[in-house]
């Protein structure tokens, strides 16, 4: 009856990986954004960019309208 040989270095690394994954999952739950929140942010950014582009002056235009 021989016991399975366990490499302690590999065991420690696997344990560390599992703990990191556990922490990552907790962070995803705490700090992650829902799809709705992401869509809202995207829509607001597009609206702001559109408003900025509408106020842009074209090159070559002077105050009196002559080129």
How is this structure best described in words?
The structure is a single chain. The chain contains 2 helices and no strands. It has 67 residues and is mainly α. The longest helix has 24 residues, at 8-31. It is rod-shaped, with a radius of gyration of 28 Å.
Concise account of the structure shown:
This protein has 67 residues and is mainly α. The protein is built from two helices and no strands.
Topology (elements, then pairings):
Layout: H1 8-31, H2 35-54
3D shape: rod-shaped
Radius of gyration: 28 Å
Instruction: Kindly report how far apart the N and C termini lie.
Output: 96 Å
The overall strand count is 0
Contiguous uncertain segments of 5+ residues: none
Work out the oligomeric state of the chains in this entry.
single chain
- How much of the sequence is in beta strands? under 5%
- What is the number of helical segments per DSSP (H or I, 4+ residues)? 2
Largest β sheet strand count, sense and barrel closure: none
Report the mean per-residue pLDDT as an integer.
88
Fraction of residues in helices? 55-70%
Task: Look at the helices and sheets and give the structural class.
Answer: mainly alpha
Q: What are the secondary-structure elements, in order, as H or E? A: HH
Name a few traits of the molecule:
67 residues, single chain
């Amino acid at each position: 009856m021989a016991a399975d040989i366990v490499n302690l270095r590999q065991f420690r690394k696997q344990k560390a990986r599992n703990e990191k994954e556990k922490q990552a999952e907790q962070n995803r739950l705490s700090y992650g954004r829902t799809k709705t929140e992401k869509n809202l942010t995207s829509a607001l950014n597009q609206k702001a960019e559109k408003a900025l582009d509408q106020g842009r002056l074209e090159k070559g235009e002077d105050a009196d309208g002559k080129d």
